[in-house]
Structures are given as C-alpha cells and as structure tokens.
C-alpha cells in the first residue's frame, strides 16, 4: 500500500513539514530541578525525530510562575529558554522540526501544582491579572522563537485556563470575559493569540489545540466547537481538534481500548468543512492505513499520534520503508499514564527503552558470544530472545505448546485487545529475523538443559490459572478464562464470571459487548484492584454498561447447571444464575518449574510471571534486562 497523502509535505505559514505525522505535546515528567531539561528528555525527542516524525511538539511549558507545576517545563525566563534549546537541538540534529506547547493550567491538574502557587481560574482572576497573563503568553512566545523552535502550540483544551474561559459551566464571569456570549468566552483566547502573533512575527506558525466538543451535558457541543474554530481561525495556522475535558472525560481525551481507533476524527472532519486553515486530528490512531485514509479523504490535514509513538518511535520511518509489519503497536493499556500519575516516571509496556533513549536504540554487542536457552515463549521470553540475539548470542527458545504467546494467546477472545494478541506475532518476527531458533512442543527440563549445555538460561515459564476445588468446577459448562479463546462456541447467552480481577472484568465486558447476559462474582469488596490507576476507572464504567449485575463480597461455593451458589459476608446463600461459568480467579507462578531449573546453568535468570505474577510490562522489561546481563 502507498502512503502518498500521509507522507506528503504541508506548509504552515513559513514552515514546511516533510509529512503529516505529528507528536503532540505530552507530559513526560522528564524535567528536573522543577523545570530544567533532563538528558533523557532530549534523548526522547531525538529518537522520535529520528523515527521520521514531521513535527515534535515539546510538552507543556508553563508561561508564568503562578501556574508552574511540578516536573513541568517552564518558558517564562531566559534560563528556561536556554534549557529548552537543548531539546530543539536534539530534534533538529535528528532531522525533525520542533514546536513547543505554551500553557497555563488554570485549576487542572491541582495535584501537580506547587503548594505555594495560587490556582488561577476565570472566576478568581481580576481583569488586571488577565491582561498580565496575556502579556506572559506573549513573552513565552518570544522565548520560544529565541530558543529556536520552528512553531508553537497554544494549549486551549482539556480544562486548562483558556478552555475554562470557553466552558459555559466553568466560566461564571459577568464582564467582557464572561459566559454571556461565545464572543466573550473566546475573548481571552483571541487576545492571547494576538499577543503571541505580535511576539513571534508574521511568518512563525501558531497552532491552537482545543476540544471540538466537550462531550458532556452542560459543556459545549460540536456545533459550538465549529463556531469557536471560526472565531479563532484568522489568528492561527493549524487547528488541532481534540475532544472532551479532564473535568469529565479522561477516556475521551485519551481513548481507551474500549473505543474505536480514530473515534474523535469525526470532530475534526466536521470542523474542517467550516474553516479555511489546516486541521489536525487525534484519538487512538496507530494504523498507517487508517491515517492515510483520513488525509486522503480530506477528513483532516494532519494526524497526531501520542501513545503510538511512545510504543514505537520509529513508526513513521517503518511505514516509509515499507516495513509496516514491524510496527510495535500501542496497546492502549495506559501503563504510560498510570506510571506517570503514580510514580512520576514514564514507562511503556512494549518499549523498555522509553526514558533511556540516550543509550541508543541498538543494544551493545556482547564481548563474549554465548549460548542462551530460553524456557517459555510468552512476551518476556520472546523479548529476551530478540535482545540476546541482537547482542550476538546463539539463542534457542523452547515453547512447550504448539504456539507462542503464553497468556497473551487468550487475548484473541477479546476484540478490544487485538493489539495485545498481535504483539506475539511482532516479537516472534523480531526474534526470528535476529536468528533465534524456536522449538515448539519442547518442555525445558533439567535433563534438557544438561543436554543443551547453555551458558545462560532464562526461565520465562509464566503462570498457570488458579482453579480452586469448588464443587462442580469440573462441569462441562465451566471454562477457565485462559481457555476462553478455544471455547467461544460453548459460551451460552447467560454467563457467570467468577473473579472480578482485571482478567475477569475484561472478559465480562467482552461477553457483554456480544450481547450476552453477564453477572460478575467477586469475593473482595472492590473490582479490578490489579488494574492500573488510569485504566481502572474506564474499566469500571464499561462494567456498568455491559454487565447485568456485579456481586462483590460473594464467595463461590458450588457450581450447578443453574449457576453458581455463593455465600455473602453475612453467611447467606445466593444463586447467581447462568448456564456458562467462566473461572477467572487469578494466576499462580510456575514455581515448580523454576525450582527444577534454578541451578542448571552458569547464569540463570527468572522473569515475568514465573518470577511473580504481574504484568506484561514487567515481563518485557525483565526479559530485556536479563538479556543485557548475559
């Protein structure tokens, strides 16, 4: 397939981009000393520029000390300007173009602000302070030009200060900036854009990011989004159409795996019909064919990819080189955002190099080439095999079943997790191309290790499902969740899912989406405590939509043809009716395999679920680092 539209240049005032792929501003928490540029941030942007992106938009840069958030960049003094030049240089040195996102956060996100800062909102700002903020935007824009940026983005979406002025429910002012008219609500943004233009000159491109619709009752809708765009278009060169607000819809601004890829494209497509400037779209995009169609059909002029470029910074280059099959697709699992929220770090399930780009994307060859045996062909084992082979080792991977993937094989039963299932194919291709020998139907035993005599053994044997001795568990109507993909034809229209962890909840959602009547049984008081902090709220919303009933505090005691008999916290028995029962009661590490193999080679490393039942992220990272240690 050709991608002539996606990789055609586009002119934005005095700037020409080589293609239509843009990295949006995305907070990485890679700042240091409150607002300085860390080396890993320059490496991150350098890698994405080297990967073929047409424009890198550097994340949130605060325009004043009043709104300076912890570990966000700043752009309100000469020191900030000089710090940001490091990122500009890294992007330019790798063939890219650089923009910066100038920002005032208003009252969101409150938890990131320094305690000494005053939260500024439309309702508590004096007119004098509004005028001062407008000047500060202009000063930040001037610093952006001096730092060498090729363009800038004015962030007016997602409930940040400019958006708060435009939001009719948040803006309760009664003066010329108040909510009496759209003209009033847009006045702040218009005046900021005028100040920015005065600061940057006539040929410097200005982009405006806003929500095409707020997507909740009481917010503005797409029709009003069109009017906002028309009000501002004469002042800008590119209109970045996002969606929703942090106030009401994190899953709208960052579409989850439960939503279609490109679910927000319709907003940009409609707005584009009513304006005369280029329009950009965003929203779970990671398929080059879909992005080509968006550009070729005129739905948008530019496509933005955020999480997709975290997963694979070289995605654009791979498409240009006709290597689309080598793209490592974003899983939309929210590991990247959950880690940022929980620990202030950035991680990606499928890319252990994120935040380590300064080390380079190529692993260092081993000084001594060794024979490496890997027991298990799940994601961790495959990544370890690929990494070890790239270092020059002779690698044999043994899988005791007829197919690779480990626990990922079960994801084929869940349509919204197709990227997770496909990850196995991608890692297998990488491993084979690197020279890994893969042996199926081969269980690694102590005798097998003795026969192969490897220098290093990586145990990636995974986990097995926890199936407690509940009466009736051996019934024909019972399916273990790991085996759901093999038994889809056995699933009736009335289903009881035993186990309200992440696997059980996602299974229940998928079956509910198919139109089945699903009830969920969980002995704890809360569902999915093992889900990350970003995915879990969206998961629970889907449970509300797709599951008929949730029974927390229920302990399953007996399975019958009529359903599952449970006991509640008061000792009372209840029948949860269903003619199919899914057992999703957790996983248990294959510690027996680990104990058998622990001392069978000079170097032994245990990774993934075999080490401790955890996440794909940990399996991949542990596999990568185990291979680096050989």
Can you characterise this structure?
The structure is a single chain. The protein is an alpha/beta fold. It contains 19 helices and 28 strands. An eight-stranded parallel beta barrel has the order 3-6-8-9-10-11-12-13, surrounded by six helices. A five-stranded parallel β-sheet has the order 16-15-14-17-28, sandwiched between helices. The mean pLDDT is 94.
The poorly predicted ranges are none
Compute the number of strand runs: 28
Give the N-to-C terminal Cα separation: 40 Å
Give the helix level as a range of percent: 25-40%
Helix run count: 19
* Radius of gyration of CA atoms, rounded to a whole number: 26 Å
- Shape assignment: globular
Query: What structural category arises from helix and sheet content?
Result: alpha/beta
What fraction of residues sit in β-strands?
15-25%
Sheet with the most strands, sense and barrel status: 8 strands, parallel, barrel
Average of pLDDT? 94
Biggest sheet strand order reads 3-6-8-9-10-11-12-13
Secondary structure blueprint with pairings:
Blueprint: E1 10-12, E2 15-17, E3 21-23, E4 31-32, E5 36-37, H1 39-50, E6 55-62, E7 73-74, H2 78-93, E8 98-103, H3 127-147, E9 151-155, H4 161-166, H5 182-200, E10 206-211, H6 222-232, E11 238-242, H7 250-253, H8 265-272, E12 279-281, H9 288-296, E13 302-304, H10 307-311, H11 315-320, H12 335-343, E14 371-375, H13 379-390, E15 394-398, H14 418-433, E16 437-439, H15 446-452, E17 456-459, E18 463-465, E19 478-480, E20 494-498, H16 502-513, E21 517-522, H17 535-546, E22 549-552, E23 555-560, E24 563-567, E25 573-577, E26 580-583, E27 587-589, H18 591-597, E28 603-606, H19 616-628
Parallel strand pairs: 3-6, 3-13, 6-7, 6-8, 8-9, 9-10, 10-11, 11-12, 12-13, 14-15, 14-17, 15-16, 17-28, 19-26, 20-21, 20-26, 21-22
Antiparallel strand pairs: 1-2, 4-5, 18-27, 23-24, 24-25
